[in-house]
Recover the amino acids of this structure.
């Protein structure tokens, strides 16, 4: 399954300054978001299902992919386009068995070895991070931001697309893409923004700028 990953919104309603996830997603759609992941970890399965169902029609109408964090069962019930899985979630292969060949399955990684394994296991794309430090996700004390050099190593090690996640802002997105990411995934840069629509546009412009910079880089094979 091929999917556009330039700008990727991961939802988290408690960072949205009182706005609902649906309001944030509507604004992101207006700003040109490519893919949305429902990640409401502190909500019940029933609530996650209700939110995902509410987003099904507006995302489909806009041609925006809709995936669910962690929960294959919620993705199936809401007829979402796929799931995003990490170390604590169902492995990719059994998720694929349940969701089918056309589903989008993303996998979180932070090392080259894990990226190669996820690709072998059939992931469609990788979420690579945390690129920069972030307060949006609780991480173990020994988990550090991986930085741009590790992101580049991962991008060079796999053939599937990767998105950089963790502390990404419009001001940093071009660097992340120039380093090898196909797109950027964010929570707070859109969700906590005063104007989530404008923030999405700014992110998309930064991704385009990063792609132009990479294409112009003589160190990159096949570029100018
Ligand atoms: C696009 C993207 N990349 C990485 C993650 C992190 O997933 P995971 O490691 O499973 O952690 P949780 O998000 O489940 O807390 C992601 N969600 N999305
Ligand atoms: C959900 C998530 N996963 C990460 C990882 O490193 O796998 S970092 C992260 C949080 C991203 O939020 P923000 O854009 O606000 O930094
Ligand atoms: Mg997870």
């Amino acid at each position: 399954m091929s999917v556009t990953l330039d700008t990727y919104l991961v939802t988290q309603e408690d960072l949205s300054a009182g706005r609902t996830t649906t309001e944030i997603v509507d604004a992101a759609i207006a700003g040109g978001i490519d893919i949305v992941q429902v990640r409401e970890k502190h909500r019940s399965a029933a609530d996650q299902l209700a939110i995902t169902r509410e987003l099904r029609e507006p995302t489909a109408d806009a041609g925006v992919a809709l995936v669910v964090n962690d929960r294959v069962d919620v993705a199936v019930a809401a007829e979402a386009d796929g799931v995003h899985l990490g170390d604590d979630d169902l492995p990719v292969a059994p998720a694929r068995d349940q969701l089918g060949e056309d589903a989008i399955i993303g996998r979180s990684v932070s090392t080259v070895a894990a990226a190669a394994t996820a690709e072998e296991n059939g992931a469609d794309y990788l979420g690579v991070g945390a690129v920069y430090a972030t307060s949006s996700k609780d991480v173990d004390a020994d988990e550090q931001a991986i930085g741009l050099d590790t992101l580049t190593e991962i991008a060079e090690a796999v053939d599937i697309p990767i998105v950089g996640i963790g502390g990404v802002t419009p001001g940093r997105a071009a660097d992340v893409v120039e380093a090898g990411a196909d797109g950027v995934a964010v929570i707070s840069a859109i969700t906590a923004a005063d104007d989530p629509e404008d923030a999405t546009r700014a992110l998309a412009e930064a991704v385009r700028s990063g792609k132009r910079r990479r294409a112009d880089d003589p160190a990159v094979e096949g570029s100018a």
Notes: The chain has one domain: 7-215. Residues 8, 10, 37, 39, 69-70, 84, 86, 89, 106, 108, 127, 129, 137, 163, 165, 185 surround LCLJCK34 (ligand 1) (CB under 6 Å).
